[in-house]
Amino acid sequence: MGRKRTPYLLLVPQMFLTVLLLIGLITGITQSFGVIPAFGLTEPTFRYYREVLTKPDLVRSVCYSLWIAFVSALLSAAAGVFLCAVLVAGHRTKGKIMRIIQLPIIVPHVVVALFVVNLCSQNGLLARIAFGLGLIGEQQEFPMLIYDRYGVGIILAYLWKEIPFIIYFVISLMANIDRKLGEAAVNLGADRIRAFFCVTLPLCANTICSGFLIIFVFALGAYELPFLLGATVPKALPVQAYIQYTHPDLQNRPYAMALNGIIIVISLLSAAVYFILIRKNLKDLSKTDS
Amino acid sequence: MKKKGKVTDVILAVFVLLIVVPAVVMAVWVFTERWAWPALMPQVFSLRAVKEIFGRCEALLRLLLSSMVISSAVALLSVVIGTMTARALVLYEFRGKGLISFLTILPFMVPATVFAMGVQITFIKMGLNNRITGVILAHLICSLPYAVRLITDGTAAVGDRLEEQARVLGASAGQAFFQVTLPFLVPVLLSSFSMAYIVSFSQYFLTLLIGGGQVKTFTIVMVPYLQSGNRNIACVYSGIFLGITLAVFAVFEKTAEIWSRNTDAEFYA
Fold it and tell me: Which residues of A fall within a CB distance of 8 Å from B79?
């Protein structure tokens, strides 16, 4: 009898926090439909979403954020997987080098922003090196890498932080598969590159996709880097949302929530895909065990 | 074969350099007084920024203390709650298990900004806004999924067979867990603690909104300096905090290593 109740008792604190999370989500979603009784708004409406998706500056915010998130996640995943393969091929999956690679994981995003300012601004070290090499004659000739329209600085900051994350996320699985199945493929006559692309990589695909999704959603919803390194126009979704949220006119609150609503929809879709991927992974793993 | 080894070495060396250089440049900025365009090295070094921060020793200590108290509390709670959740999910069958395991990873997918703006009104109503407890609670929601993920793997690896044996031999449920399973889990618990600590420590937006600027953490204090272009102060703060975090982690990792060596030895003896 005790055994039946135990799991539910163990889950009490977890559920308390989950409920708090859901309250936050649901409040945001109801407010995005313009229902905030405290401000005298009670009629549900799609108006705010319609406006958010048609106002030119807000549409540009949406595109800007999607662009940054997608490019950051794609490049991080690609570079991370490439470096993982290099590490596995060089048998360097443990020891000092892995320790250095894990360093960016503990560095907060605000500090990464500081790094990017130090290196990539028009007064930064890269500009100075370019001047020293005679590539540019004046400070202003160095391309705007931060506060720019394409979010280059933001993307660079994410890459510095997230490539190591992908490596950390994928490396043990890849090393494991390579040791067992990659070797087998090589013994059967495949060359190493073919073995990597036809055996190891497909078996890691789910994990890599999960890593991609985590970074994508994170970059889409994160405030720090676009706030510190982003352009004045266009502004990233979360920055734009916070501006609307703190707008002195409280009637602007639903716009903030509609912008958040867009982030939520994309995030939840990604969450569903992520969950399916790990589920499938678990099933595959149990299949190989039996 | 030899040539290939060289290529991988070069690639890795470049990569390591890209990771380390920004940190080194930051360290140089800590001592920089004047660094005019287009010099590659600062012209004038000084300890002004360092002195300015250590001059207000009390403020710095208070900041260190509140940052570390918040992050440590978050990390500790994450580990305890994470262990409970992991045990429920790994060792028991119950209705709604699929849904609950989905809900445990949901915070990975809900950006902190969205959550913060949605939940602020609830926190205000509960009297948690602008309070350290509120910030801890909000951070906890973001850190917990990392702990749950790590500890779930750990719990699955340890299993409950040894614990059941202990029960058969007359141990209570509590004894069986604390004396049999827990020692095996220590390394994984330490890494969950570190992970949760970092997640909490790195939060800016959530702390800003729920803490309302009243609750000071490292990021809250550092960002205005970065924005106003006061780079050497920002670099000093970053240096201090990164240094402490690294030191704490090194101790943790060493502990985990020694611990697992000892438990293995006992187990196989």
Answer: none
